[in-house]
């Protein structure tokens, strides 16, 4: 092989610039990429990452659940969204269109959502009570949770967080196969409402509550 630089393939300036632009675009993720075309609180503004068991709700379901927790929290109520970023995003969208304001916090493992600022709280269900000091016990009017995995172990740990944060009301979204565990761990009843996702899931998905809800009928 020749030592001469003449034998090394060279890219034109235009081709090199195009290649650099492609790599720059490929390296952009989450809110940074999508905020160009969409509002940062749109459902799907952060792409699903199936490696983290992320499956976003459809627009209709996110709206229905957000309206439910807003109604249950009441005016100036506080809402905790555990592993439910779609609902948090929809709450922020609805916030600007309603006079009965509420406040919401997103507890989430995916640090891309840190772009939402102080309302983002890093959350790992493996450490269910490792929470910031400002998240006081029984300080939320309602907690909505969507555990990432369909297992009793995961639900049991998330239940510890839910019961620590809520004043009483709980809305759980998880698989139909978790009905018995939802009742045993948090005394929840299954709703007739059928939540939908942007991508169909293999497992039937349901909602569970411990209060009188429009979702029950």
UniProtKB/TrEMBL annotation:
<dbReference type="Pfam" id="PF10237">
    <property type="entry name" value="N6-adenineMlase"/>
</dbReference>
<protein>
    <recommendedName>
        <fullName>EEF1A lysine methyltransferase 1</fullName>
        <ecNumber>2.1.1.-</ecNumber>
    </recommendedName>
</protein>
<dbReference type="GO" id="GO:0003676">
    <property type="term" value="F:nucleic acid binding"/>
</dbReference>
<dbReference type="GO" id="GO:0032259">
    <property type="term" value="P:methylation"/>
</dbReference>
<keyword id="KW-0963">Cytoplasm</keyword>
<comment type="similarity">
    <text>Belongs to the class I-like SAM-binding methyltransferase superfamily. EFM5 family.</text>
</comment>
<dbReference type="GO" id="GO:0016279">
    <property type="term" value="F:protein-lysine N-methyltransferase activity"/>
</dbReference>
<dbReference type="GO" id="GO:0005737">
    <property type="term" value="C:cytoplasm"/>
</dbReference>
<dbReference type="InterPro" id="IPR019369">
    <property type="entry name" value="Efm5/EEF1AKMT1"/>
</dbReference>
<dbReference type="InterPro" id="IPR002052">
    <property type="entry name" value="DNA_methylase_N6_adenine_CS"/>
</dbReference>
<dbReference type="InterPro" id="IPR041370">
    <property type="entry name" value="Mlase_EEF1AKMT1/ZCCHC4"/>
</dbReference>
<keyword id="KW-0489">Methyltransferase</keyword>
<comment type="function">
    <text>Protein-lysine methyltransferase that selectively catalyzes the trimethylation of EEF1A at 'Lys-79'.</text>
</comment>
<keyword id="KW-0808">Transferase</keyword>
């Amino acid at each position: 092989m020749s030592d001469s630089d003449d034998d090394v393939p060279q890219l034109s300036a235009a081709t090199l610039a195009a290649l650099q632009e492609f790599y720059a675009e490929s390296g952009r993720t989450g809110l940074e990429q999508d905020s160009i075309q969409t509002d940062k609180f749109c459902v799907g503004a952060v792409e699903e990452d199936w490696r983290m068991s992320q499956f976003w709700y459809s627009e209709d379901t996110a709206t229905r659940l957000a309206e439910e927790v807003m109604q249950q929290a009441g005016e100036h109520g506080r809402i905790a969204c555990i592993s439910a970023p779609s609902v948090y995003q929809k709450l922020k969208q609805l916030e600007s269109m309603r006079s009965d304001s509420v406040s919401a916090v997103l507890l989430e493992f995916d640090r891309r959502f840190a772009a939402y600022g102080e309302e983002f709280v890093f959350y790992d269900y493996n450490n269910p009570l490792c929470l910031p000091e400002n998240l006081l016990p029984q300080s939320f009017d309602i907690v909505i949770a969507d555990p990432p995995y369909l297992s009793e172990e995961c639900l049991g740990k998330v239940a510890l967080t839910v019961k620590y944060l809520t004043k009483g009301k709980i809305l759980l979204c998880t698989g139909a196969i978790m009905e018995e565990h939802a009742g045993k761990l948090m005394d929840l009843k299954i709703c007739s409402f059928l939540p939908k996702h942007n991508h169909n899931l293999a497992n039937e998905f349901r909602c569970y509550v411990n209060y009188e809800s429009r979702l029950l009928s």
